[in-house]
Design brief:
The chain is an alpha/beta fold and 446 residues long. The chain folds into two domains: 9-77 and 382-437, Urease, subunit C, domain 1; 78-334, TIM Barrel. Helices cover 36% and strands 23% of the residues. The chain contains 16 helices and 16 strands. The strands form two sheets. Strands 5, 6, 7, 8, 9, 10, 11, 12 and 13 form a nine-stranded parallel β-sheet that branches. The chain has a seven-stranded mixed β-sheet with strand order 3-2-1-4-14-15-16. It starts with 8 loop residues before the first strand and ends in a 9-residue tail after the last strand. It binds zinc ion. Residues 82, 84, 237, 275, 327, 330 line the site of zinc ion.
Length: 446
Amino acid sequence: MTEQTEVRRRAFRGCIVYCRHDPGEGNDPEALEVHEDGVLVVADGRVEAEGPAAQLLPTLGPETEISDQRGRLIIPGMVDCHIHFAQTDIIASYGEQLLTWLERYTFPVEGRFGDAELASETAEFFLDELLRNGTTSALVLGTVHAVSAEAVLDAAHRRGMRLSAGKVLMDRNAPDYLRDTAETGYRDSRALIERWHGVDRLAYAITPRFAPTSSDEQLRRVGELARAYPDTYVHTHVAENPAEVAWVSELFPWSRSYLDVYDRFGMLRERSVYAHCIHLDDGDRRRMAETGAVMGFCPTSNLFLGSGLFDYAAARDAGVGVGLATDVGGGTSFSMLRTAAEAYKVAQLQGTSLSAARLLYLVTLAGAEALSVADRIGGFRPGREADLVVLDPAATPLLARRSAAAGDITERLFALLTLGDDRCIAETWVAGRCLHRRGADSGAGG
Ligand SMILES: [Zn+2]
């Protein structure tokens, strides 16, 4: 924690940039709001005003503290739509694809998270690492243990973060030490929903790992919970890897497709978030659009595990919401800037060039939209919660040189989104409180 003094109103002066809406393929110039010398006024944890400095500065009373960030960019806090906190310690593990990756690395480490002390120590590190990377909101998977979800929700609550998480449900095709049952999984999830869902900025996510590790009975109970608590999230994986897809068609021979398994159990609805969505067909995309289910695009993970290329253009053409995600520990970075850079390359391989505005959209507003919280975060319209990041475009000698050579804001943004990482995150603010300042100790905040 770096900011102990309570200041009611604070104004950030710098280059204010955010997306009003998806810039789209045509890169709609109206989508990007930019104030080169701008001011963002924050009071009581919310955005009070934003606009040109020349216009806003004279209106501010002497009690307003000014944070001078000229030369830097101020963007909304970034949103990670799919990440496993218990996989923090296996990030960058060598040589496997999805199914053997799970057996060799994931299951052994997740088995340890029944230990509340380990779960909470990892949750503290994990959230500090998100904040160090400018990520202020995330949709997080725990492990099969209820205490794992407790640990990350409790740690996020103490930081005042808008965060969603859930205990993983898995009752078959996994080691004994990682299995619940249809009944205990249902009961534990319901108790966690009652305890945590809607507490301040927290939400609960009903989290079956993926179809192969849940029985029909468990998926049926998931559908039951999804109907009983319609404003919780349903969060899982689909169609990541060809061997996984083939396995699902053996386990559920009646299904039209992998996604159809979830559909049959009532798991497609608004606030249903499906990570990967690589090996889908048009029928699946249409079904997601119809039901309001959304996709988590995890480029570093998909490249690292050799899973395939997510088709962003096809998803958007079908009208499906897409949020960007790191998928740590299959993903190789906590940084949404690095993740955006890899998203750009994945789209390039399929003939689509994502503009700077679209990449900014992907790391901020797209995630807020995918999680149905765009009325609260992802932009700087007055009334929004004041989650924001101060980006330093001169964080490294190369970035400083490249930024100096850049012309307009889109060129500077593109260089920053392509070359940037945690070194560019000068400050991270959550609901108007500074929870990370580069070079200073950061932590839970008191
Ligand atoms: Zn995942």
